[in-house]
Amino acid sequence: MNRVVIQVQDFDVAGELAALEALGGGGVASFTGVVRGGDGLLALELEHYPAMTQAQVARIAEDAMARWPLLGVSVIHRVGRLEPGARIVFVGTASRHRTAALESCAFLIDWLKSHAPFWKKEHFEGGATEWVEARAEDEAKAKEWGG
Amino acid sequence: MATLTIVYFAWVREAIGRDEEQVERAQAGATVADLVAMLAARGGGYAQALGDPARLRAAIDQRFAPLETPIGDAREIALFPPVTGG
């Protein structure tokens, strides 16, 4: 199973986990990213490169499948306007081995941050907006996985 | 093809004021960096968006590529800031 979904609407974490559990590996790891509030943030706006996103995220999922003995990978990334508390990204992996499930899950979220064509814009109370700057530590984290 | 499609994202798109345009292939230069320099020389929002290539990233036909990559027979060049997904 190699499921990659880019969508505006929310997703059902329990349903995604159940699908991974049903693969029978015995081990499922997941990460859910949620929009963090504070500092007057009203919403995040997620822009992406529609012609590229699906294929690029699928390549990242295939990389994970090639590097770890996985039975399944699910990646869901939302786009559009997302308010604090909204789910933004889900990564789930299934394996017969917990180390493979946990490590590949961490790899996937690190690579999504620095190797997939998404850009976040913050909208604040009062009308101010700001594009989120890429963080050097995210790039460094991705590099730690090599390749 | 005589023209190359250029697409822009995030603050590059906003500064330039458009998300896509066509450029004559003959004027694009040999590499993505040459194309960026040619566009930045238009001034205004182009200079603001593309004047500092160190802040830019690129994709050639929907694959990430360093700015020094030759354009070759590519159809679509994307210019954008470093990505911030996840």
TrEMBL record, chain A:
The UniProt catalytic activity note for this protein reads:
2 [molybdopterin-synthase sulfur-carrier protein]-C-terminal-Gly-aminoethanethioate + cyclic pyranopterin phosphate + H2O = molybdopterin + 2 [molybdopterin-synthase sulfur-carrier protein]-C-terminal Gly-Gly + 2 H(+)
State the source organism's domain of life.
Bacteria
Which keywords does this chain's UniProt record carry? Answer: Molybdenum cofactor biosynthesis
Q: Indicate yes or no for the key word Ligase.
A: no
The text of the family note is: Belongs to the MoaE family.
E.C. code: 2.8.1.12
Task: State how it assembles.
Answer: Heterotetramer of 2 MoaD subunits and 2 MoaE subunits. Also stable as homodimer. The enzyme changes between these two forms during catalysis.
Entry keyword Cell wall biogenesis/degradation = no
Q: Which InterPro entries match?
A: MoaE_sf, Mopterin_biosynth_MoaE
> Pfam families from the entry?
MoaE
- What this protein is called in its record is Molybdopterin synthase catalytic subunit
This chain's function reads:
Converts molybdopterin precursor Z into molybdopterin. This requires the incorporation of two sulfur atoms into precursor Z to generate a dithiolene group. The sulfur is provided by MoaD.
- Give start-end of the signal peptide: none
Give the enzyme's main class according to its UniProt record, as a single word: transferase
Q: According to its UniProt record, in which pathway does this protein act?
A: Cofactor biosynthesis; molybdopterin biosynthesis
Automatic annotation (TrEMBL), chain B:
Taxonomically, the superkingdom here is Bacteria
Note the Pfam families from the entry. ThiS
The record's section on InterPro entries has: Beta-grasp_dom_sf, Mopterin_synth/thiamin_S_b, ThiS/MoaD-like
Gene3D superfamilies per UniProt: 3.10.20.30
Q: NCBIfam families attached here?
A: moaD
Q: What is this protein called?
A: Molybdopterin converting factor subunit 1
- Specify the species: Sphingobium soli
